[in-house]
From TrEMBL:
<feature type="domain" description="Helicase C-terminal">
    <location>
        <begin position="240"/>
        <end position="384"/>
    </location>
</feature>
<keyword id="KW-0067">ATP-binding</keyword>
<feature type="domain" description="Helicase ATP-binding">
    <location>
        <begin position="36"/>
        <end position="201"/>
    </location>
</feature>
<dbReference type="InterPro" id="IPR027417">
    <property type="entry name" value="P-loop_NTPase"/>
</dbReference>
<dbReference type="Pfam" id="PF00271">
    <property type="entry name" value="Helicase_C"/>
</dbReference>
<dbReference type="InterPro" id="IPR050742">
    <property type="entry name" value="Helicase_Restrict-Modif_Enz"/>
</dbReference>
<protein>
    <submittedName>
        <fullName>DEAD/DEAH box helicase family protein</fullName>
    </submittedName>
</protein>
<dbReference type="InterPro" id="IPR001650">
    <property type="entry name" value="Helicase_C-like"/>
</dbReference>
<keyword id="KW-0347">Helicase</keyword>
<dbReference type="InterPro" id="IPR014001">
    <property type="entry name" value="Helicase_ATP-bd"/>
</dbReference>
<dbReference type="Pfam" id="PF04851">
    <property type="entry name" value="ResIII"/>
</dbReference>
<keyword id="KW-0547">Nucleotide-binding</keyword>
<keyword id="KW-0378">Hydrolase</keyword>
<dbReference type="GO" id="GO:0004386">
    <property type="term" value="F:helicase activity"/>
</dbReference>
<dbReference type="InterPro" id="IPR006935">
    <property type="entry name" value="Helicase/UvrB_N"/>
</dbReference>
Amino acid sequence: MYFSDNYNFIKYPIGNETIPGLRNAQIGAIHAIASYFTIEKKNPGIVVMPTGSGKTAVLMMSPYILRSKKVLVVTPSRMVREQIFEDFSNLNTLIKAEVVPKKMAKPVVIELQHLYDSSYEQTCLEADVIVATPQGANSILENKTVEFDLVLIDEAHHSPARTWQQILISTIGARQILFTATPFRMDRKEIKGNLIFKYSLALAYQDEIFGEITYIPIDKDLENKDVLIARKAEEIFLADKAQGYKHCIMVRTDTKDKAKQLEKLYSSETSLRLRRIDSSMSNAIAKQFIRKLKKGEIDGIICVDMLGEGFDFPNLKIAAIHVAHRSLANTLQFIGRFARTNAINVGAAKFIAMNDEDLIIENKKLYASDAIWQDIIVDISESKIRREAENKEYIEEYQQTSDKKATLSNFSLYGVRPNCHAKIYRVKDFNINNDLPKSCNLEIEPYVNKKENTIVAVAKGLSTPKWLDSDLIKNEEHLLYIVHYQKETKLLFIYSQIKSEAMYESIVESFTSRYEKIPRYDMNRVLAGLNDFDIFNSGMLNRYNESGESYKISAGSDVSQTIDRSTGRMYSPGHVFCKANLKDSEITIGYSSGSKMWSSAYLSLQEYIKWCDNNGRKIVNSKLKVQTGTNYDFLPMPQKLQKYEDNIFLVDFDGKTYSSDPLIELKDKKQAIRFITDLSMNINSIQSDIVNISVKYGEIEEVISCDLKGKCSTNQDIFYVWQGRDKISLCEYFNENPIIMRTTDDSVIQGSEVLRGDSNAIVYDDSNIVGIDWKEKYGTNIEIEVNDSTYHPIGKSIQKSLQEILQKNFNYKYIIYDHSKGEIADYIAVEIKDNNMIVSLFHVKSKKGEQFNSSMNDLYEVVGQAVKSTIWLKSKQTLLQKMKSRRSSKHCKFLKGEFRKFSKEIKSPNLIFKGIIVIVQPAISKSIEMPLKYQQVLASANYYIGQSGKVSKLVIYGSV
């Protein structure tokens, strides 16, 4: 029992520049270890001490204060293994610090120089300490002959690696201490254990454990970079030597081939005596060069990463960096080799490298010409370690709420790093004790943090391989769900890797009784407080043409340059994704009208929740104003709908409905299944807080009410909409795909948003009204729209007269009749002229009012049909496909010409496609005074149709 027997010899002298003893860092660490293992029996303890602060002494003292029986020390490399073996065998470091007396018995220490076999058995059984690399340590643990009660891991940031993890698993009953200067990894894997002592880099500078460090930038010259760095290294070495400093040089690069090239370059371009050390050399040769270095027989060494962790030679003071590390951990380890002060005749450490402002470590331009390393290194190290400690404490706040614990191998919330994405709802209440829906298919019991109102769950998903055109094989995947409620804002954030509306809504409904999506005017505030915008992806909603180019997406470098004031009159923001600066840090941020926000960043769980919270506070802060300082500001942002005005003249489907036309059926299933766009929608009545809309399929009618939040309701539920295999009510569909309403003053209302337009742009002009003497010239009864055997068997209808008019016009090559439910138009007339194919759509309605220009009902329905029909003139292909669909149901009858010839002619690339919309309503009279509201509706219809794209004009066939 060597360590127990010698426990009483241990002292804790406090040293300074003149008196030997322990430093503050060492005293703090050793007492923290003693305190921790007084209580802790299970979890490893993590000790964080900067390179050069005396970590080896603490490691050697630990077995004494813990009165250990047998100790395993694991080092990252053979060279460090040899150093620790030698030091532990002689206790040189502890004797020099007067922690133990010179004459005290030394421990029996074994250096495991190769994998464990029978030749080691007796010596290992008799040893107090065994020092090994990970491979050697695993070989002795697999044999199970030797048992350890204390495991000391040097450079513990390696411990998440599989080989190191196996050591910790195999010694799970032993006390384990992990020593590191950088408790974080480039791959972000968790260093498992409790942080029991953290000695900051700032304290190391304050206690003069770390000396000054200076960065010497070389002006950019990529062709002569290596030569310039080499010559500057020689200049500084000679200058330091002239001042009496015993400094040595390390030349750092990234490959053995590059090291060989630099060896030749330094030999030809400088007088420096350097030797190359790399992994291809034998250990004996490497040790020989190190001895020469320490004796001053050579000036320095050229290496890749051979003399990194654990190598102790404080006279290394000049670093010539030809290829820099790109991770913070490696950079700090490297700098730590040079910043030590525990040697005689040494000055400030100097780092020579190219002025590379593009090389960013932890968002800091470390190798920029104005970089002040003394401040930067402390700042990024301290903040990184602080975040690591906070993250560990934060993860501990999550608990599984039942006995059904995690079954995923080695799963830890520490490793959860979601890409920044969230669907956001404003909710009335939140019950964290509720369960996620069964559709999530959870694999393990969720982790719950009641303090943060957050739930994290891992689920099992099955997907068909992309290369397989069937569902016979399924790939198993793990899916992540995060539900976070921000109490102060009453916002609920949902992270789901299944990004369907159905999944999001099933989750939100599991935790709250009432919820609503966030409108664009609120979502836009996630851009507030940022500057230096570079917008590289944006979507814009067309105010006038949901049926044409309803959504325009631009991507590239600063797409805002493509936006001008005229674009702002046509479009409003749909989504945006941009790069910007926040407090001198570059971030990405995006949002969409679908109540979503995202970034390209991947964050820890704690950082992700903070990201949600920070943006949530901006979303609800109505005082915030967004100015990007780019042309994106030309796009008008919708406002909150406060009340409905009585100038709404048109209701229409959302643009996505036209691009993906779902099927509908009647509740009683007495009618054949049709498409939702076969329905007609008209305004029934307008109140300040409710718009009542009539939805018809022939004579079958359902009246729905739309409130100021865009929510639709009804007491009828006649029509149902198919979504895949599911069937939902018409109101449910409209709540997911809000109805669009247009006003006579160029405003567009959708959901809870209103987008104001330019009312001055809508001007009434009667020049597009064609006055026809229906009764005298054609014998028309203008109160009859169409002759039919039931309602109007006698009397000449408007349609019959229109057909006569069209057939007398010899310019029309094709005339098509399509009157019925879901029609394109009552009549379609096609003219071929001067390489143009001009398609005219005629919409017919009868006069119902007692007087001309008197009944708004005479206008609303036909104007609505006219505006909506612009969808079929979006392109040649759109019109042709619709006509084919109509003909398959025995409609779209050709009165003049043949479909086969028309189909061939419309495909001709030589014909330019143009459209004309014609409203046929004899109730409109050009010669009788027209009320203002009549004028507004006609002017608005003309304006909207004119803005739609392919339609060149609106013509009105009225009465004289």
